[in-house]
């Protein structure tokens, strides 16, 4: 795409998720019903009925890429989700770390590139299966713009009728306009699923308790 801005990339990925949702609807993969309060008051297109009870949560986000992110994930987020009584599906644990370390240890060249190409498919499939197994998604929205992989997972999760909760503890502006918190399409998928966007870990328990009802 050349020198595409982060905001444009996120918009494109969110649009891909939208197309995925439309394709699944066209294939009859959903049982349509009216969404939750926000979706109803905003007169959005009805969404499919999600799982009646939330017992498992897929943790979507880029936290595993950095030391600080991993610390926050392991020390704060994962213990909190387990304290709420959820089975946590952590995509950073779905693929054997040894496979990744093995490629990282390889010298740069065609063999390493080909190894990554093969493993990338496995990682993507494992993450897809994790979303399919989960009742709900907790998406980490921090950053100047929503992480592109996270935006894709949000779009896919919406198409698969999952409830989505967004967490953005980052106070920087990251939206198309002052009417949204993050990219408008990403935010639409979250709220139309029956979820919400919170700005602190302290809000997670109350918000998840509403999803579990």
SSE arrangement:
Elements: H1 6-26, E1 32-33, H2 37-41, E2 47-48, E3 56-60, H3 67-83, E4 87-89, H4 97-104, H5 110-133, E5 136-140, H6 148-159, E6 163-167, H7 184-192, E7 197-198, H8 204-212
Parallel strand pairs: 3-4, 3-5, 5-6, 6-7
Antiparallel strand pairs: 1-2
Helix pairs in contact: 1-6, 1-7, 4-5, 6-7
Could you walk me through the main structural features you see in this protein, from its secondary elements to its overall organization?
The chain has 213 residues and is α/β, with parallel strands linked by helices. The chain folds into two domains: 6-93 and 135-212, 3-Layer(aba) Sandwich (Rossmann fold), CATH 3.40.50.450; 95-132. 49% of the residues lie in helices and 11% in strands. The protein contains eight helices and seven strands, in the order H-E-H-E-E-H-E-H-H-E-H-E-H-E-H. It has helices at 6-26, 37-41, 67-83, 97-104, 110-133, 148-159, 184-192, 204-212, and strands spanning 32-33, 47-48, 56-60, 87-89, 136-140, 163-167, 197-198. Strands 4-3-5-6-7 form a five-stranded parallel β-sheet, sandwiched between helices. Helix 3 (67-83) links the parallel strand 3 (56-60) and strand 4 (87-89). Helix 1 (6-26) packs parallel to helix 6. The protein is globular and about 50 Å long. Mean pLDDT is 84; it is low at 20-36.
In a few lines, what is going on in this structure?
This protein is an alpha/beta fold and 213 residues long. The chain has helices at residues 6-26, 37-41, 67-83, 97-104, 110-133, 148-159, 184-192, 204-212; strands at residues 32-33, 47-48, 56-60, 87-89, 136-140, 163-167, 197-198.
């Amino acid at each position: 795409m050349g020198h595409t801005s982060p905001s444009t990339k996120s918009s494109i990925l969110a649009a891909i998720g939208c197309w995925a949702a439309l394709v699944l609807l066209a294939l009859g993969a959903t049982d349509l019903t009216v969404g939750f309060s926000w979706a109803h008051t905003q007169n959005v297109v009805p969404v499919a009925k999600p799982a009646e009870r939330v017992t498992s949560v897929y943790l979507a986000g880029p936290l595993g890429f950095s030391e600080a992110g991993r610390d926050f994930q392991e020390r704060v987020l994962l213990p909190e989700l387990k304290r709420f009584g959820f089975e946590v599906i952590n995509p950073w644990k779905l693929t054997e770390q040894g496979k990744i370390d093995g490629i990282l240890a390889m010298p740069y060249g065609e063999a390493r590139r080909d190894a990554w190409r093969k493993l990338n498919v496995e990682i993507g499939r494992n993450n897809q299966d994790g979303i399919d197994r989960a009742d709900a998604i907790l998406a980490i929205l921090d950053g100047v713009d929503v992480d592109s992989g996270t935006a894709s997972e949000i779009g896919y999760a919406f198409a698969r009728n999952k409830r989505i909760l967004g967490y953005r503890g980052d106070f920087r502006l990251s939206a198309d306009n002052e009417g949204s918190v993050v990219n408008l399409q990403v935010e639409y998928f979250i709220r139309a699923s029956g979820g919400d966007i919170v700005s602190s870990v302290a809000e997670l328990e109350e918000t998840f308790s509403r999803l579990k009802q």
